[in-house]
Specification:
Largest sheet: 3 strands, antiparallel
Number of domains: 1
Number of helices: 0
CATH architecture: Sandwich
Shape: globular
Number of strands: 10
CATH topology: Jelly Rolls
Strand order of the largest sheet: 4-1-6
CATH superfamily: Galactose-binding domain-like
C-alpha cells in the first residue's frame, strides 16, 4: 500500500512598499528597477506610486509637449525630486536599469515653482520641479 502525505503550510509574507506620488509636465512613465509602474499624460493629476521596498533604481521619463516642462515626485522613504537627480535629454538604452552608468549625465536643475501655480498641490514643499536645464519655459 502506498501512502501520500501532504501538509498544508500557509506562509504570510510581509511585503513592504515605497509609496508616493509623481507627475510630469506633460507625459510621464515611472520605472523601478526597469519595470514600468505608472504612466500618465495628465500633469495636472498626481500618479500614485507603489514600488517594492528593495528597489534600487527609480527613473522617470517625461516628454514635454510644449510650454514649461518639469518632473516632480516625492516618496515616503524620503526620496524626492531635487538637484541630486541626474537628467538627460538624450535617450540611452538601459537608462532605467540597475547598473546603468549615468556619470555623463548632468544634475537636475530646479524649475520655478510658480510656473505650475497650485498644480500638484499635495507635493508643494515636499519636492522640487526639476528639468534638464534652466531654459526659458523649461525647454532643452
Amino acid at each position: 500500500m502506498q501512502r501520500v502525505l501532504t501538509k498544508t503550510v500557509l506562509f504570510f509574507i510581509a511585503v513592504s512598499f515605497i509609496r508616493g506620488n509623481a507627475t510630469c509636465d506633460d507625459e510621464m512613465s515611472f520605472y523601478a528597477d526597469g519595470v514600468l509602474y505608472a504612466q500618465s499624460d495628465d500633469w495636472n493629476a498626481l500618479s500614485a506610486i507603489s514600488i517594492p521596498c528593495d528597489t534600487t533604481v527609480m527613473a522617470i521619463k517625461c516628454q514635454d509637449k510644449g510650454g514649461i516642462a518639469g518632473i516632480k515626485a516625492a516618496l515616503d522613504n524620503g526620496i524626492k525630486t531635487n538637484i541630486s537627480w541626474k537628467c538627460s535629454n538624450t535617450f540611452e538604452s538601459g537608462w532605467n536599469q540597475i547598473g546603468f552608468n549615468d556619470s555623463a549625465w548632468s544634475f537636475a536643475v530646479i524649475q520655478d515653482e510658480a510656473s505650475w501655480r497650485s498644480h500638484a498641490a499635495s507635493l508643494v514643499g515636499k519636492a522640487d520641479w526639476i528639468w534638464t536645464c534652466a531654459c526659458p519655459g523649461g525647454k532643452t
